[in-house]
Amino acid sequence: MNGGSGMEGRADSQGRVYQASGDQHITEHHHHGGSASSPSAQSSGIESVRRPTGGRAPVVFRDRTELMARLHAAVDAGRGGHVYVLHGMGGSGKTAVAHAVFQYATGVADRVGLWVNASDRATLRGGMLAVAADRGAEEGELLAARNGLRAAADLVWDRLDQSGHPWLLVLDNADDPAVLQDGWLRSSPRGTVLITTRQAAAHWWSDAELHHVDVLPSDAAAQVLCDLAPQTGTVEEARSVADRLGRLPLALTLAGGFLAHQVIEPWTMTKYEQHLDGPQGVELIDKGAAGASPLADSRNLVSRTWQLSLDALAEQGLPESTGLLRLLACYGADPLPLSLLSGLPDDGEPPRARAEAALRGLLDQSLTAMVDVGVRCVQTHGVLLASVAANTPAGQATSLAATACGLLDAVVPAVPERGPQNLLFRLLGPHALALLQGATDASVTANALDLAVRLAIAQHRTGDYLSAYELASSAAAVAEPELGPEHRLVLSAKSRTGRALFRLGRFDEAEALIRRVLADRERLFGPDDPDTLDSCYGLNLPLQQMGRESEATPLLRRAIEGRRRVLGPGHPLTLRARAAILEYLSGPDLVAEIDEMTVPLPRECASYLGEDHDETVGSRLSYTLALFTLGRLEAAAEEASLVVEEFERRFGLDFPVTFSAKSLHAQILARLGQLRPAIDMMTYVAERRESSLGAGHPYTVKSKEYLNEFRARLGSS
């Protein structure tokens, strides 16, 4: 297909492969069903954005009078089109300010409140697509954005611009502003954007209004302690404690939570301050004595506060809370699904039987908080986690990291299958990377990398290709210095990166990366190693789309024959490769491939794997396409009808793989002269593709070309 850019994209007679202008390639594979989701599970990939995360809202909001007045005015009726940035060191209360503004906007100013964690690219994208869903985006549009078939940021901001109700959008924890630079940060007359970040550099925030959130003034800091722990001391005593804590809101919250929950032998603020002066206390607090300065290390300001809380929990019969907090410090500061903790072993740290009580202790002391993003989670402040991790005894760190890996291992599928979008997979991504980044032992690094690769595969097989690419590429970069470039798992992470690049249409990059991995695997593991054969299969994919069949097809045949020998004829990977080759062959080669089958490939897949297996379902569409290519139209029409019915049942009416099946069925009907049903079917496909992908998308354009062709033939008959 030639375009005005002078670039050429390759497509066979069925129009399966298209290329947009510029350097974006877009591929539609009939055999792949992983980008669809069942109707009953549509919501599984959508997180809640109507509730703030980042911990508890402040009980009473103190100080920040001028700032709050300014931000209240920003969300009052008739205001919009502005971006506000709250910047300051970790623990200074930026998120608390955002909480308070969020409550005002939703409770007083009659705005829709939307809260997104912007800590990394995958988390930001998932949250922003949930915003689009909240503002009316259809599932097909969201799925296309996750698959990389349309610009996700454009979809989100189009929906925000068209919102029927004014909104406040909070982008929390944007400590790496680079993640916002791919079109995510914009303004709209329909709403106000509020960002929290540690980065104050003005070049990140052009056209935004910046506000520094510093530690609290002495009087306000004292009042916070009195709010949280009334009757434990005078305002003067509270001021003295607050000053020792550098007036950092996070440290004040931890101290107040401690004082408020001493029941049997209540502590006074004076006693608390004396313990700050105890062993290790003076050194830790003095390091943070410059707490009024944003340059102070806020981790030092909270170290003694959480240790006192853990000591108190131990005295109350909950020593396991220490182990649980250290375990949480192995993960990241993003929401952590509670389901992980249900997998604690009976002899773990803490043991499963004591996990509930240990968690309640941490919640009571404000050391962690419950959040609900569509999945029940716990979330702990990043400054606190960093402080705890830094103070964990070296001898315990490795065993805790191993336990953390084991908990993730229990919820990440060993062999991920195609299926609906899964919010759990997206939530686990930052924590898999955090485990890798914090690992100090090679065995833990290897286990964490294995988890990250499997999780990337799981994301890939739900059609979340961008998340899969980001996780796999980041994991490889983190693990390679520790494990070496020739480690099998490092090569697996790079291979998965290449496969995601292919799905994103970045064929040149995918080919170069997979080719390097193939060379390394063949040299290190031999020509018949399953990983080597996997690279043969993977390299075939971009080569086919770039029109280099003479290189691609021998690689695919090598994968088929090698998998037959090594894995067996009935292995899912063997059958997947056999289905794939039906899409690429034509003429005598395809005739020979079909005629050599003792039974049709879908029936053979079913005999090995069952009727409902992924590979059986995928092979049906590939086989139907082969029949159509060969001109065996009656058989193709019968198969296509069954395939469409199966895909509608399995994946729903409005998903890409169902559109592919319907498009093929319509072409078969048209070739048979059944133009009216062909027109009806292609009309539906064209309209739904335009809705989800846009009028200019190559899939939409091709569907309309077929539709016009069918109508012209009907008119001339």
TrEMBL record:
<feature type="domain" description="Orc1-like AAA ATPase">
    <location>
        <begin position="64"/>
        <end position="189"/>
    </location>
</feature>
<dbReference type="InterPro" id="IPR011990">
    <property type="entry name" value="TPR-like_helical_dom_sf"/>
</dbReference>
<dbReference type="InterPro" id="IPR027417">
    <property type="entry name" value="P-loop_NTPase"/>
</dbReference>
<dbReference type="InterPro" id="IPR053137">
    <property type="entry name" value="NLR-like"/>
</dbReference>
<feature type="compositionally biased region" description="Low complexity">
    <location>
        <begin position="34"/>
        <end position="45"/>
    </location>
</feature>
<dbReference type="Pfam" id="PF13424">
    <property type="entry name" value="TPR_12"/>
</dbReference>
<dbReference type="Pfam" id="PF13374">
    <property type="entry name" value="TPR_10"/>
</dbReference>
<feature type="region of interest" description="Disordered">
    <location>
        <begin position="26"/>
        <end position="56"/>
    </location>
</feature>
<dbReference type="Pfam" id="PF13191">
    <property type="entry name" value="AAA_16"/>
</dbReference>
<dbReference type="InterPro" id="IPR041664">
    <property type="entry name" value="AAA_16"/>
</dbReference>
<protein>
    <submittedName>
        <fullName>Tetratricopeptide repeat protein</fullName>
    </submittedName>
</protein>
